[in-house]
């Protein structure tokens, strides 16, 4: 129970109230009241701060008679550091306000509660918690008894010398039957390890009774999670295991998050419950457990938090021999390996139209807002152009390289009408053009730029064609600067700016959430932003400020690839090659 102590710092109390009231108007459009009302806001305690509904109920129960307490209701908004009381009458509200505000300390803290009268309380309608379960997901509560739970937990040996036990970065793990290889997300069916203990056989019989798959499970992964630990969001790789995957939760409860595109839901996993993932839930929806010490859950009385203790999960799988036969090719590694059609000249134009040109038309405003400063090494190249020289910026975007150098003639071209409009508003000389067919005479310009353009072309021959066009329009002795995205986003252990802006803790690993089968028959991986590349041809997400999501095609160049391509161009020589913040760069001179 929170302790009571009169807190007399009225100025501080008023500041706390005003700050919370401004936040409330901003968040929920609810106004404070200068006069007492039946509605109270707890300004500095909520689910985000670890404040439980049950604690609030106990505080009020200690102040009001039972008959009046039954008329009260409590509202705990998810993701907020405040909460509300509907006290049924203004008189009840005044009693609680006078006993709690500035007088009673927060549980386990030295600061007091700050309360405020408000005009209303919100109606909590959290679609995230009420969303339907993914197809193929089922939860069986009390799958094992408390005695069986204790027996299973006591059967484990977490000795680090045990060959079945290991410690990952975020948890301890043991494998039985076959070892799950976290570096590849695969198993080797030809390398069995210690079998699943025979003392667990009764679980297999119970699986059959509940129709949990149609095979005998032969692989078991046991994970031990301490409070605050979790697992990153992921989709289990398709090919290593058969359809149904079972997860038995022992010890602590937790919340598991499921997501498929814009659809998401949470599933509360009580102790001794069995989660069954099959079909779409297993093959398409990603799942994970956030690293936190408390979970927000929904009870019969409303939303509250539940502290985590040590949780142990038993995940049963059936090892597959052969390729996956699912009907979800966009997410299937077997389909990617065996069914992907190579990008060829016939489909390249339409693929680029869909995943490059149309996308830039949609994101042009947001894209332009993120492109302001000239890159230093590009500026140095521009400084080498002689006074009166003619520069063509091929793929000029919003024209950031057309600014400055008033002593040279600067012209830009781009495939995006919307980006060209941005340039025209800035009074730049620009025109619409495809980089593969520049409407320019031979030997025309003194210098050319191609910054972050050629990596959007989907075949080698088209990339070569774009460089040939740059060389064709250069006068003899003229130079062009080419920048393309590098597959290597880390040089001499130093991450590029692209990786430095990552919010992920594991910046050295690409997490390919899924692949997409385009309308052109090509299956391409969707790259995880701000991680290193492991594929050459990828779709990279762009999230617009208004929430729109788009995929852009990129061919990321390996070290030496751009140089080799440039060296194959007639009438040109490579003058310089360098790496610049995640890009391979070449200066090419026409001879």
From TrEMBL:
One GO cellular component, as annotated: cytoplasm
Taxonomy, superkingdom: Eukaryota
GO function terms (MF aspect): S-adenosylmethionine-dependent methyltransferase activity; tRNA (5-carboxymethyluridine(34)-5-O)-methyltransferase activity; tRNA binding
Domain Fe2OG dioxygenase: 216-320
GO biological process: tRNA methylation; tRNA wobble uridine modification
Reported cofactor(s): Fe(2+)
Keyword annotations from UniProtKB, A to Z: Methyltransferase, RNA-binding, Transferase, Zinc
Signal peptide annotation: none
PANTHER family: ALKYLATED DNA REPAIR PROTEIN ALKB HOMOLOG 8 (PTHR13069)
Protein name from the UniProt record: Alkylated DNA repair protein alkB homolog 8 isoform X1
Source species: Cephus cinctus
Gene, per the UniProt record: LOC107268536
């Amino acid at each position: 129970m929170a302790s009571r102590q009169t807190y007399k710092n009225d100025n501080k109390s008023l500041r706390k109230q005003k700050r919370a009231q401004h936040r409330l108007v901003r968040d929920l459009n609810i106004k404070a009241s200068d006069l007492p009302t039946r509605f109270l806001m707890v300004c500095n305690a909520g689910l985000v701060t670890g404040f439980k509904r049950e604690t609030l109920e106990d505080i009020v129960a200690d102040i009001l008679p039972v008959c009046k307490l039954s008329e009260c209701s409590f509202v705990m908004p998810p993701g907020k550091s405040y909460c509300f009381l509907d006290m049924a009458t203004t008189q009840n509200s005044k009693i609680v306000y006078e006993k709690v505000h500035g007088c009673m300390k927060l549980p386990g803290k030295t600061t007091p509660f700050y309360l405020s009268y408000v005009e209303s309380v919100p109606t909590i309608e959290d679609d995230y918690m009420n969303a339907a379960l993914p197809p193929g997901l089922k939860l069986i509560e009390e799958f094992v008894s408390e005695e069986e739970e204790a027996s299973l937990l006591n059967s484990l040996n977490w000795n680090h010398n045990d060959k079945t036990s290991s410690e990952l970065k975020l948890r301890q793990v043991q494998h039985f039957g076959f070892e799950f290889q976290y570096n590849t997300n695969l198993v080797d069916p030809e390398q069995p390890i210690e079998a699943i203990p025979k003392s667990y056989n009764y679980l297999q019989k119970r699986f059959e009774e509940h129709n949990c798959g149609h095979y005998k499970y032969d692989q078991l992964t046991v994970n031990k999670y301490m409070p605050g630990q979790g697992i990153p969001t992921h989709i289990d790789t398709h090919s290593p295991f058969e359809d149904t995957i079972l997860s038995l939760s022992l010890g602590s409860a937790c919340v598991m998050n499921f997501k498929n595109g814009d659809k998401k839901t949470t599933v509360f996993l009580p102790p001794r419950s069995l989660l069954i993932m099959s079909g779409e839930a297993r093959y398409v929806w990603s799942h994970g457990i956030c690293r936190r010490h408390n979970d927000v859950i929904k009870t019969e009385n409303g939303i509250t938090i539940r502290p985590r203790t040590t949780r142990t999960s038993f995940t049963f799988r059936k090892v597959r021999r052969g390729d996956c036969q699912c009907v979800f090719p966009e997410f299937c590694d077997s389909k990617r390996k065996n069914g992907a059609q190579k990008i060829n000249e016939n489909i390249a134009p339409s693929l680029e139209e869909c995943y490059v040109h149309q996308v830039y038309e949609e994101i042009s405003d947001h894209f332009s807002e993120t492109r302001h400063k000239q890159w230093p090494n590009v500026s140095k190249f521009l400084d080498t152009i002689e006074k009166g020289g003619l520069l063509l910026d091929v793929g000029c975007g919003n024209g950031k390289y057309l600014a400055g150098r008033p002593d040279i003639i600067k012209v830009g071209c781009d495939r995006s009408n919307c980006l060209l409009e941005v340039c025209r508003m800035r009074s730049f000389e620009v025109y619409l053009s495809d980089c593969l067919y520049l409407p320019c005479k031979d030997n025309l310009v003194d210098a050319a730029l191609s910054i972050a353009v050629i990596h959007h072309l989907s075949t080698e021959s088209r990339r070569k064609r774009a460089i040939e066009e740059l060389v064709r329009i250069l006068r003899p002795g003229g130079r062009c600067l080419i920048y393309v995205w590098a597959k290597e986003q880390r040089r001499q252990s130093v991450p590029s700016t692209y990786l430095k802006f990552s919010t992920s803790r594991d910046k050295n690993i690409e997490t390919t959430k899924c692949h997409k089968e385009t309308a052109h028959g090509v299956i391409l991986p969707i790259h995880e932003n701000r991680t290193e590349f492991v594929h050459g041809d990828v779709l990279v997400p762009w999230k617009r400020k208004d929430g729109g999501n788009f995929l852009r095609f990129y061919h990321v160049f390996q070290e030496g690839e751009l140089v080799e391509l440039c060296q194959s161009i007639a009438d040109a020589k490579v003058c310089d090659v360098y790496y610049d913040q995640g890009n391979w760069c070449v200066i090419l001179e026409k001879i």
